[in-house]
Amino acid sequence: MTEIVRIYGRGLTGLFLGLVAFWMALLIVAPQLSMIDRAFLYQDRGGETAMLALEIDRAYQRVFQIDQELELLRAAAEPDPAAAPSAGAAPSAGFGPSAMSGFGPGAGAPEVSADEAGAKIAALGQEKRLLQAKITELEAQETNTSGEAGMEEVYSLDNFTSMSAVHFEIFLATIVYAFCVTLLAFCACYPVAYAVASSDREGKVAVLMLGLVIPYAINELLRIFSWVMILDKQGLLNVALDTIGLIDLDAGEGFRFVASNGAVFVVMTYAYVLFMVFPIYNTIETLDRNQVEAARDLGASVWRIHARVVIPHAKPGIAVGSIMTFMLSAGSIAVPEIVGRGLHPDWFSQVIYRRFFEADSWNQGSAYSLALLAACIAFILITMAIFKVGIRDIAK
Amino acid sequence: MMRGKDVTLQGVSMRFGAFTAVETTDLTIRAGEFFSILGPSGCGKTTILRMVSGFLQPSSGEISIGGEPMTGRGPNRRPTALIFQNLSLFPLMSVRDNVAFGLEARGIGKAERRRRADGLLEMVALSGQGDKKPTELSGGQRQRVAIARALAVEPAVLLLDEPLSALDLKLRQHMRAELKQIQRMTGVTFIYITHDQGEALTMSDRIAVMNRGRIVQVAGTDEIYGRPANPFVATFVGEQNVFRGRVKRLEGDTVAVIETAVGPVRGINRDGLQSGDDAMIFVRPERVSIVDPETDDGQGNRLDAEIERRDLEGPFINLFLRAGDAPLALHMPNAGDAGSGLEGRQRIGFACEDTVIMRAGELARD
Known about the structure:
A: about 70% helix
């Protein structure tokens, strides 16, 4: 501390510390506290106001849908049909199924004749006006009753205890999944890290390191999508199998690699491989090469050399890599959503996402994510205790 | 009691790309002897050691241990054990586990491992230290753990790669005696790599001196010191006074007179030089003495030299003199106050039979 003051002077040190404190307070402490607060704050969704709010939400959603349909109908009625969007081109940028569902009713629009379209536009306009009137009424009602009836907020554990059995199963499964991903990542990374760390040639190390770093200069989502291209039914892997004659794609043969947990594991392993490789590489690099030779000279097999000499030495690095990979995969939402396509067993991160943005229950979502965080930390501490790795080893 | 085996190198050479680390070499190391390979750094001695241990495969030739060819056998399948320069103990294992590691690798049961490891620790005077970590031991103790660990696998040949170089002087001298004793006790063939001629001379039965990938002399310690084969061995092993010159005339079959910058010097002409040949003259500093001009009998070589410095090295007094342009060293035993009043110009002398004449060649750099 005094060292920092000596180097940068009081003013600059104060600025650094102030910025760090500001950053910690604003980006770490405040959101966490708010999340914890929400997690323990139970909203009674059965109350009158809650029902009102739900009804208003639904009305707004329907109005939005009507607007979309009207737009499509009008576009279809335009003289230039080339401008009409086809159903297949419906944008689907969002992750959740909800983003898709809004476009459902408009799918058949280009088929109808001009007269029918006119009638439909009129009907929809009518419905919209009715809905808007209803919304005004409901909102007035909400303002009147607010604070008296309905939305009761009390501190309790209900957000946690009201977790359904299905969600709880997913919760436990997710920890197992994340553990599997961590294990896979370790199996993939350890040999690479060992090979790179024990390579003598400067050039070889540089090439291997570049090979690991360059893919990580690409956006994570792109990396995931590229895997979808490989694993898809019409993807590169099936095409390759088709080319060498193992399967016949034209006859409808082909493996559905995506939308399975296996694919999710593989892609996730790939997505977080770097976080595993570097810590292990760093620790193995500090291992005295003579120790490996000494073990070999004393007659140890390759397996024993690794089990007794290399892995014990690399343990802190393995622990750091595993913690990062485990935490990242337990919380990953992009990989199970994109690769899983809702057809694979759910991950808890997806459940949390839906709690927040589909069930519109931020409090329960907070409770779920807090539970996941706590469970992950507990799991890590237990694993560290089993493998006899201390916090101090990791700090080294 | 373990049994040492002999090691034979037949036409062995080692090349790394264009660089030849070890020139074609034939060498036989007898079973149960303490054999040192001595040479400056980069002379190829460690390469020979690594070829014998199996970490390197020779570019040509064959290595046999106990008559069995070792070609294609990895280090884990040879009857050798290597003690590394930095010892390379396993820092995360206890001392006992370190010693028992080779037994563990051979699938020996836990109780038996423990019994044998404790026996070896007792042999190297470390009983009761088995549960400690290597880092908790002193340098000398770690050294002994490394020896016990290597001996645990009952090797026929123990290879030592300058294992004493990290120790301080006192400990090094103590460990020399200990290593020698362990070698006698176990009967294992020791191949000891060092650049320290003192270590090689005190411990070895025989020494091979290496230079630039070539073994230049293999002999017993007395012969290496007393009858070095060439100027390199003469100057690398022990200290020497060196004069360069040209053969002026021969006196019979064994003696020649060399014309040097400090005047004519008479010595033993072992290389059979002819008149006019380039020559080098070697005299050990302990063979040079100060001559009292009053009682001088005039036998042997005489020079006048100026004393420049006097170093006291306990039992010896080292005088550094200058005869004309040539530096000259003189070691005399410290007999009371002898030499304390010496200064200025002195007459020094050395016997003709202590003066070795060799064909001019490469000297060791110091």
